[in-house]
Amino acid sequence: MTEPTILHATFTARPGEGDRVAALLRDFADAVRAEPGNVVFDATQLVEDPERFFVYEEYVDEAAFQAHLANPAGGPFNAALQELIVEPHSQLTFLRRI
What's residue 19's pLDDT? Predict the structure, then answer.
C-alpha cells in the first residue's frame, strides 16, 4: 500500500495584500481540487492575523504530488504569489499520518 503525500504550506501576505492573496488562493484551490490525485486542498486564513495563510494538502501518493507540481496552473500561481508574500516562497512542511 502506498503512503499518501501530506503537507502544509504557510506564508504571509505583504501588508495590504491579504485580500489579493486570498483571491489568488481561492482560484488555485479550484484547480488543485480538480486534480485526480488530490484528496484535500484546504486553504485558510488566520483569524487573528489575516495576512497569514495556512494550506493543508493531501495527495493519494508521491506520484500524484509530482503530478500536482507539474500542473500548468502551478507556475503562474507561484509566480503571482511570490510577488505578494513576505517570504521568498511558501514554507512547506511534510507530514506523515500516524
Answer: 96
Return the CATH number of the domain spanning residue range 8-95.
3.30.70.100
- Residues near 78 by beta carbon (within 8 Å), at least 6 away in sequence: 89
Grid look-up 488566520 returns 46
- 63/69 Cα distance (integer angstroms): 10
Q: Break the chain into its structural domains and give their ranges.
A: 8-95
| Residue 1 reports pLDDT greater than 90 | no
Q: Are the C-beta atoms of residues 41 and 8 closer than 8 Å to each other?
A: no
CB count in 10 Å sphere of residue 1: 3
Strands in 1-98 per DSSP E: 5-12, 38-45, 52-59, 91-95
Question: What is the DSSP secondary structure assignment for residue 55, as one 8-state letter?
Answer: E
pLDDT tens-digit map of 13-66: 999 999 999 999 999 999 999 999 999 999 999 999 999 999 999 999 999 999
- Look up residue 38 and give its three cell numbers: 488530490
